[in-house]
Amino acid sequence: MDFKAEIINFFQFPPTLSEIILLSVVALTFIYQLYYYIRYIAGANRYLRRKKKNKIALSEIKPPVSVIICARNELENLRTFLPTLLCQTYPIYEIIVVDDRSQDDTRNYLQQLSVLNNRLRYTFVPEGPYSMSTKKLALTLGFKAAHYNHLLLIDADCRPEGDNWIATMMQGFTKGKDIVLGFGAYEKESTHLNRLIAYDTQWNGMQFLGQALSGHPYMGVGRNLAYTKDLFFERGGFQKHINILSGDDDLFINQVATAENTNVVIDPEATTWSIPKTSFSEWFWQKRRHLSVSTFYRTSTKIRLLGEPLSRGLFYLSVLLCCVMCRPWVWTIALALLLIRFIWQICIMDVFAKRMNLKMFHINILWFDIVLPLVQLWMMTMNKIFPDKRKKW
What we know:
By secondary structure, the protein is of the alpha/beta class. The protein has helices at residues 3-12, 17-41, 43-52, 75-85, 106-116, 134-145, 165-170, 192-213, 229-234, 250-256, 280-292, 299-325, 328-355, 364-385; strands at residues 65-71, 93-99, 120-124, 150-153, 158-160, 179-181, 184-186, 225-228, 262-264, 272-274. The strands form 2 sheets. A 7-stranded mixed β-sheet has the order 3-2-1-4-8-6-9, sandwiched between helices. A 3-stranded mixed β-sheet has the order 5-10-7. Strand 1, helix 4 and strand 2 (93-99) form a beta-alpha-beta unit. The longest helix has 28 residues, at 328-355. The N and C termini lie far apart (62 Å).
């Protein structure tokens, strides 16, 4: 490009109205994206830096804790992962497994293992017709069976990073905090789908943790989440959304979490690892089911969550239109802003991934950043046009 000629051309032929509008949209959406990343997404990295410098307040008290697991036909996963939970370094804790009407040999296995280890207890969801989510019923039964006030949730197909998982998560129960949000990752595999799932999981995790750190908690993940038994029953538990199949983690947190009662713990030792879906169709239905409950979020939460993908879509669209419709000096500015945004994305996302021992993405970030919102838009549209029957039991 001849920059001297472009400068002369600029003064001889000022920008047209369409060029001004497109460049303004690019600049405004770029600024909003920069603000969103710095305030929310980068919050997890700031937390990790401050924790490394011992500037994060952590609880030194180690209250007794009940670890709650709901299991439905999870015999093999329980055999694999229960031993890692039964050898935690925490002084006083119990593991309560709620058998959610399993058809395999889960009940016999739990009975045999509980005889050998007095930390393990189990209960079950009785057979019968239900007009509610049995996952929420199973959790409620587990909470009622718990001996201790502090409850720590993990899924049956999850493993903690190590034997300090309970101890690290419980550090979040500082004075006045009744909820602790943790990060849940998926096991690493060398497939394109696994990379997509890993990126989606990391992005969502950094988003809800970052918003919680900014005083706007709105969700947690049931595979790594803690709160008190008193809070659960005082706020009515799952009663307000008992007939919705999903939402046992995020809807309850969206209902009760505040800046005052919620804390986060971000630490490699506090991470849990889950088994990812191995086919796109399985992941598609799982993701669609999770997205279906977002319509029940608080209005303020929905506004914050919608602002980012809308500004992202407008940014990419306006950059594309600049490249197609405008003169070189206009699309040069647009592409420069795109490059700047891409560089800071890599820095923020991959720095977090490295510190948390997650999968690094590098240049794939640009591809995932464009594709995932389109996939989610498709899923949300499908939820509106063809409501998932599994939303209700």
